[in-house]
Design a protein that fits this description.
globular; Peroxisomal Thiolase, Chain A, domain 1; alpha/beta; two-stranded antiparallel sheet
Length: about 400
């Protein structure tokens, strides 16, 4: 398809986040204010420089008109968007569009969630008490209350069609746990083995407990502005090469009813984002593939062309996705180990990778002198990272993507 490209015209100039915890004891409003303020300071901006705001939620966050005045920000453009894991990359694209059309100049994108202590994603807590409506009608009447239950069709079908094994996919958790062990912010820093993963209790086949992401409380923020404005700011500007947002399969509700069942939305998004960026998968140095489950990472890396269809299990178990491998994935530990942010933290991590400022436990990290020693308790900064790619996921039928460069 023909696409208009805004390659290199817009940049991410600031990132910020709160602590990743399992009991913040704070409101999502307070956390959002902290994350946005940290991103503003990271960029070297003043609050008055930000005149646009985008956020996304699933009934748990705080709206932009409440967050902005707490920071002394008057907005020329804002939108509060309902959505989960395919939102981050999409909102980066919407921010670019808002600036391009002259509606605002600089946009803060945030996500604030008490995803463990209040609004849990599975069939518990506030979510379980909600009435059944919308897409839930395609799930709840059949006993599918949680994401793992809904996605299991896709995961099991891939195993059936291509011989993918639980042991292969467990390597995603193993790799991300190694990365998290170098991350002071990570909620779970313990390294695990393949046997640890497949030996953990079943949640819903083919998912074991350690195949599933964390539930955490946190807020995160990205700031987007034009490349022209970015040149005068404090931090190294990270250029957006291409973006695809909330691309879907032909059906989103009964997604398994329109085959192939093992196909996920990245199949449709890849040509958009690579077409805009003017590169190929082999040009990407670091990936951030959404890891709500080990299987989501595997399926997306495969669908975006980092390996052939059906070879995802072999790809993630080959060592390629580990630090020191050809193309490390989720170098912070991702949702499986660092904390669950609906995709925001993965973009923040890749921004820092491109800046060369990853906050790891490397002795020289504070001075920007990384050793690139990936053994236990050391570095997680990828050497000479020039291009990163984020692969967003809300469900098998909905995805997004973002390619950035130094």
């Amino acid at each position: 398809m023909a696409t208009k490209t805004l390659r290199d015209k817009y940049c991410i100039v600031g990132v910020g986040e709160t602590e990743y915890s399992r009991g913040s004891g704070r409101t999502t409003r307070a956390m959002a204010v902290e994350a946005v303020r940290k991103a503003i300071l990271d960029a070297g901006l003043r609050a008055s420089d930000v005149d646009g705001m985008l956020d996304y939620q699933g009934g748990d966050s705080t709206f932009a008109p409440h967050v902005a005045p707490d920071l002394g920000i008057r907005l020329n453009f804002y939108m509060d968007v309902v959505g989960g894991g395919s939102s981050t990359e999409a909102l980066v694209g919407l921010a670019m569009g808002a600036i391009e059309t002259g509606m605002c100049n600089t946009v803060a994108i945030y996500r604030s969630m008490n995803g463990y202590s209040e609004f849990r994603i599975g069939g518990t807590g506030a979510r379980a008490a909600q009435p059944v409506r919308g897409m839930d009608l395609a799930q709840v009447p059949f006993g599918m209350r949680s994401a793992g239950q809904t996605f299991a069709f896709t995961f099991m079908r891939h195993m059936h069609e291509y011989g993918t094994t639980s042991e292969q996919v467990a390597h995603v958790k193993v790799a991300h746990s190694k990365h998290a062990s170098q991350n002071p912010k990570a909620v779970q820093k313990e390294r695990v083995t393949v046997q640890d993963v497949v030996g953990s209790r079943w949640i819903v086949k083919p998912l074991h407990l350690l195949d599933c992401c964390l539930e955490t409380d946190n807020a995160t923020c990205l700031i987007v502005t034009s490349a022209e404005r970015a040149r005068d700011l404090r931090a190294r500007p990270i250029y957006v090469m291409g973006v695809a947002g909330r691309v879907s399969k032909p059906r989103v509700d009964f997604h398994w009813a329109h085959g192939p069942i093992s196909r996920v939305a990245g199949y449709y998004a890849k040509d958009i984002v690579f077409g805009q960026a003017g590169i190929r998968p082999e040009d990407v140095h670091v990936t951030g593939s959404y890891d709500a489950f080990t299987f989501t990472t595997m399926l997306q890396l495969e669908e975006y062309g980092f390996c052939k269809k059906g070879e995802g299990g072999a790809y993630v178990s080959s060592g390629i996705i580990e630090l020191g491998g050809k193309r490390p994935n989720n170098t912070s530990g991702g949702h499986l180990c660092e904390g669950y942010t609906h995709g925001m933290s993965m973009v923040i991590e890749n921004v820092r990778q491109l800046r060369g400022t990853v906050d790891d436990t490397c002795p020289g990290a504070a001075e920007g002198k990384h050793t690139h020693d990936y053994s236990v308790g050391k570095c997680r900064q990828v050497k000479d990272a020039e291009i990163t790619m984020n692969l967003g996921w809300a469900m098998p039928a909905t995805g997004s993507a973002l390619i950035m460069r130094r």
